[in-house]
Specification:
Blueprint lengths: L2 E2 L1 H11 L10 E4 L3 H12 L8 E4 L4 H9 L3 E2 L3 H7 L2 E4 L6 H11 L2 H4 L3 E4 L6 H9 L8 E5 L9 E7 L5 H12 L2 E5 L5 H9 L1 H19 L3 H22 L3 H8 L5 H12 L1 H22 L1
Parallel strand pairs: 2-3, 2-5, 3-4, 5-6, 6-7, 8-9
Antiparallel strand pairs: 1-9, 7-8
Length: 300
């Protein structure tokens, strides 16, 4: 599947048996920073799971562990404990630690214990081959692995994510990860070779949009608007324009042309944007981020 809506995620719930509360999927997090917390809260808010179905380990942040436990989640002492007690395990540590965490899991769990589990990495630049290599380098079969690239709007349930699957992933394994990620936004299934391109568009993309919102608000201030008014209008304009693209299905160029009256204010503004090379700069930004993603993947 290319992606799913929340409604489709519900169908995936049924496919994976997640709507049967006697067979609830348990989700674990190895590492629990802001992104992991946003994902966990998103899963709970979308009624995919209950907070009591969550387990995590985080050795570096006592306050986060205490807050997690107060909400009903289980705080485990280590990565092995999370892996043993979870059906889907999110690898949410920093990229340099992914391999060592998986080595810990490999050493502490039997192959039969890991076979029904799905490991989902949200670490940028760490390839499926590197993760599976923890097992294949020892002539062992790796558990199902999924690589996901979310973005920061998952903090508000509006992520644009992509995922690719490892060599031992079944359709059911993929659908579990897809249903969970679709609970916090949109998720597309892609090939791993496309992951850097996705990073350039959606992984890094929020930063480009934040710059443009800030610039538009600054322009509004320069033209005479109060800053708070200009900022809200600029952000809402981006939101509304994006909503039109998604809901009408019309090409952005067609929608742009509908705003541009002959000799009017909008075409004058668009002319300035074209003279400044905004379109080219945006394309270059995406390509640069994708190229850097490729570089990081080679270092992993």
């Amino acid at each position: 599947r290319d992606g799913v809506t929340i409604a489709t995620a519900r169908a995936l719930d049924r496919l994976c048996g997640l709507d049967d509360r006697t067979n609830t999927m348990r989700v674990g997090f190895i590492g629990y920073g802001n992104m992991a917390d946003a994902l966990a809260c998103g899963f709970v808010s979308a009624n995919m799971i209950k907070f009591t179905d969550l387990t995590m380990c985080n050795k570096s942040n006592v306050e986060r562990r205490e807050a997690f436990a107060k909400r009903g989640g289980v705080v485990a002492p280590d990565a092995v404990s999370v892996a043993k007690s979870s059906d889907v395990v999110f690898l949410a540590v920093k990229p340099p630690y992914i391999k060592s965490v998986l080595e810990e899991v490999y050493g502490g769990c039997d192959a039969d214990e890991l076979k029904p589990k799905v490991f989902v990495s949200v670490a940028a630049g760490v390839t499926l081959d590197v993760m599976e290599g923890v097992w294949t380098s020892k002539n062992a079969t790796p558990p199902p692995m999924v690589r996901v690239m979310p973005n920061t709007p998952c903090l508000v349930g509006a992520a644009a994510s992509g995922l690719c699957v490892g060599s031992t992933c079944s359709d059911d394994d993929r659908n579990k990860a897809l249903a969970l990620m679709s609970a916090v936004g949109v998720c597309k299934v892609i090939m791993e070779s496309q992951m850097s391109a996705l990073t350039g568009v959606s992984g890094s993309g929020p930063a480009y949009i934040f710059i443009l919102i800030e610039a538009m608000a600054d322009g509004g201030v320069r033209a005479g608007l109060p800053r708070d008014v200009a900022l809200q209008l600029a952000a809402q304009t981006f939101y509304g324009a994006a909503k039109m693209v998604l809901e009408t299905g019309e090409h952005p160029g067609v929608l742009k042309d509908k705003v541009c009256s002959p000799g009017g204010t909008t075409i004058a503004a668009v002319h300035e944007l074209e003279k400044a090379g905004v379109r080219q700069a945006m394309m270059n930004a995406v390509v640069a981020a994708a190229a850097r993603g490729d570089e990081l993947a080679k270092l992993s």
